Amino acid sequence: MTTAVLCMAYGGPTSLEEVEDYYTDIRGGRRPSPESLADLMSRYEAIGGLSPLPEITRRQAAALGEALEAASPGRYRTHVGMKHWHPFVGEAVEDIVAQGADEVIGLVLAPHYSKMSIGGYEQRLVAARAATGASFSVDMIPSWYDDEGFIAFAAANLRAALGDWDPAEDGTRVFFSAHSLPERILAEGDPYRDQLLDSSRLTAEAAEVPNWEFAFQSQSQTGEPWLGPDVLTSLEAFAAAGGKRAIVSPIGFVADHLEVLYDLDIEAAELADKLGVDLRRTASPNDDPRFIQVLSGVVRKRAAQAV
Question: How far is CA 255 from CA 39, 95, 190, 242, 285, in A?
């Protein structure tokens, strides 16, 4: 049996020239206003003029393919598909069909489930299969937020970021973060927030960090309420209470991209400097070999369950 593992991520522009079309795809085909486009362009310019996410995702998928080959020779082949930029999920499915596969395991490179996020990837995968007339089976991995390997990796990452700081001191706090989503998902019974809180708690316990809280970040301006509190507001409250040392651990992200490199490394860092707070961030997993082994374990566990 040949199993294609489709590694899916949000996507991102690989040059400033691609930003407008990328943004338009996010907006469902509606062109952004000149003001909104200029704001987004300035953010990408601040981090080097492109998103590193597509290249990192390719490296993650390639390394995962090597790890799976080592564990189960000849069984797995990895592919990359993006939600909002090339190679789109549909393009990846065309490649899978051309190479042949009996089944496809869908692995979204985000640990926590939400119908708006993971559900959207699944819809694209199933629609692309139908469009190609392919007969392969589809098995989506819904989440892996509490995977033992993931928690152990996140805890080790957090301890490394803490360095010589004592996490038990009152003036030191860890802020776990993830992308905000509209508040209405809670009324729909979406597990996103609960899963984020669970993985934050498990990571803090494994790292022996008593002082922590969770905050959302990077909400979009859509005119409706989004989940909070926001990490910037939380940092302000922490400083007002006498806090001096903060670690931001973006538990919801597994690769460097705009929401990490700008929203945290620039925007949050500038705010922390004004507040007199020493701010550190945990390193993104990217293609760290330890993290790749986590992904390999997640895929192989899912495959074993299907037998």
Answer: 22, 24, 24, 32, 6
Distance (Å, whole) CA 196 – CA 251 = 8
pTM of the shown model: 0.96
Distance of CA 14 to the CA centre of its chain: 18
Tens of pLDDT, residue by residue over 204-244, are 999 999 999 999 999 988 889 999 999 999 999 999 999 99
Q: What is the reported pLDDT for 307?
A: 63
Domains of the chain by start residue, with CATH: 3-144+287-306 (3.40.50.1400), 148-281 (3.40.50.1400)
- If we measure between CA atoms, which residue out of 216, 235, 242, 241 comes closest to residue 273? 235
CB of 118 within 8 A of CB of 108?
Answer: yes
The residue count for the chain: 307
- In this structure, the strands spanning 137-140 and 103-108 are parallel
Rounded CA separation 176/212 (Å) = 7
User: What H or E segment, with its residue span, contains residue 297?
Assistant: helix 289-306
